[in-house]
Amino acid sequence: MAIEKQPYACSLPASPGAEPAQEGTSHGCCAPRPAASTIPCPDCGTEGKPVQPLTLRALLQPNLRADVKEEAYCFCANPDCDLVYFRADGAQTFARADLTVRVGVKERNSPRPLCYCFGHSAESLREEWLRTGKSAILDAVKAEVKAGHCRCDVTNPSGACCLGDLTRELKALAANPPPAPILQGNNPADSTCCRTGEGPGCAC
Ligand SMILES: [Zn+2]
Fold it and tell me: 91, 188 in Cβ contact below 8 A?
């Protein structure tokens, strides 16, 4: 059924073969996003990011996929908002429970998946940071992206490359480094939990 096209800024090419806008950002794996995306989320007012219908069809619960139209949809990244997708005309919305995956950028609790193509999360970044004091994950993902191995448009709820999300998470780790892990079973004098009495799981 043909649906009248709405003149919203957050619109994407209606046909899958249409040329994407030549502005916005791209990491070589995803179609560049149009620079103008100014449709506010109907629930929280956060500016939505354009997302293609094929992303919704890939990640919504199977019984909802047929409801997705060839229309302009937006993604709400606000962690405090339960709404994930909304149609630019406001006539259709999908919440977290409507997806088959957790939306890591909207979660405050573990697990928070960030890279859906190669299986990296806020937790794996943190674990690597604690173990090595740096991140090789970002470079590894960049190499995979460069090799054309990612499929962000059908794996990532935002429909876009995860490199920005990974970089943001790493900056947050650098700005607020997690405490060193407690070494269990070692000399109590060296153990933070025993020194402070604050370690409920202490096995010293
Ligand atoms: Zn929202």
Answer: no
